[in-house]
Amino acid sequence: MDAVTTSLIVAACVFAGGMVGLGLSRVLPKSHLSRETQDVVRLGTGMLSVLASLVLGLLIATAKSAYDNTDSAIRTYAADLILLDETLRDYGDGALQPRRMLRDYTAFLLHDVWPETHGRQAMQENRHIGTMLEHVRESIRALQPVDAGQKWLQDQALDVHISLLRQRWLLIERSGRSVRPAAIAILVSWVCAIFVSFGMNAPRNATVVTAFLLCSLAIGSAIFLILQLDSPFDGVLRISSDPVATSLAHMLPAGK
Question: Judging by beta carbons within 10 Å of its beta carbon (0-12, 13-18, 19+), is residue 43 exposed, middle or buried?
Answer without folding.
Answer: exposed
